[in-house]
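Input chain follows. Return structure tokens only.
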Amino acid sequence: MSQNVSESIATSTLSSSNGGRLLISEEALVDEIGHWYEYCRSVSDIHAKLGIECLVATHSDAKEIVRAGLKTFPVYRQTSWAGLNTEPNMLKRYLGILTHNALVYKTMDRLVRKTGPVDIVFAPTVTIHHLIGWRLFATRHGGRDFKRLVLLFRNNIGYYSKDSDTPKFRRATRILAPIFKSFSPLIKKGTVVFSTDSERLADEYEALCGLRPIVFPSPRIAEPAEGVPGEAARKSPAEKSTAGIVFSCLGPARFEKGIDILQEAIKLVLARRTSRDICFVVQWNAEIKLASGEIYPPDPALVNDSRVRLLTKSLTSDEYNAEISETDCMVLPYRRDSYFARISGVAVEGVTAGKPIIYTLGTWCEGLVQTSGAGIGVPDGDTEKLAWAIEEMANNFPLYKAQAAAKAEDARQSNSAEAFVEKLWGPILSHA
């Protein structure tokens, strides 16, 4: 942390005598799988260094690793990510939206009565299942139990036609516009802040409701390679001896992240390139289901090839950081219809670690790599071009590595802890 930010927070009019209080609300936080744990832990760690108390409202089933790593309040008995948005019956789906909003309000209402006043309430994953509940909560508790409610929208609310950069909205989505607009008085007062982590997502929400969210940097960046703890001791001698350039696809594998495209591309590369000058690491520690409900498995060609290592178990923070450090090139063939506007936390970790990235043209990642990194773009869903890009990267790796390393420090500065704290706390920092 830079001196000016630390001093601003330490001397501002915060509610706690030892530096202030932040309450994070993340109903889906159960274990270390997915982005929720690492994101919340990163935010908590940033504030702990400043003497700010960080409380985290989690799912009631939060596991010991979560409770041990964070100051948790396991209060949410349900998460909207457990199938509410995929309910086939329309009436039940809309009823689920209303009842979950009520759950959000009641849960947070009870919690702030228990914790006492906080300076910031931060909800880092807000959807329509939460928005009405937060509106009621802000009206009831704003100015009394918190100074600033920050709602972060990280999911698409619109969709894009092929080759179009203009968001379109379905009829059901347009109905939400008045709910967003109802926050206007609270936003003008500074009681509520709309935020997101992508300029393209900010464009979407502004197009829908006329209110533009503030764009936050990522609170989680990669550690410098020499700063990763436990790397040397983590792997067996056999694993450490793997030679060649390491191509990694980290983060739980999903279709929207192009896992099916990646598998086919890896098969092509392995068949054409019989030498052991490259190897692949793919994080596959959660089930992937087809539309039929059947499990989509790893391809036997990958499972049976010693040049491919599948990460099938949950990773600790140190283990995940070590995988990033050990990676030479990130391969992120994300699908454009899902990631045109959404960010990739893995891509941010990649550029801040100075790793070149193979990415999908037309996605948010393209802009990140162009401004803050280096790599190769491939057309959406093109298996052959993805395989070519992997081999091109391998054949000219020193060039791409040097280009990525040269931009790493700038990438780290734009996603620094200072930048995140300044966005989250806003005017509270300057009211000393």
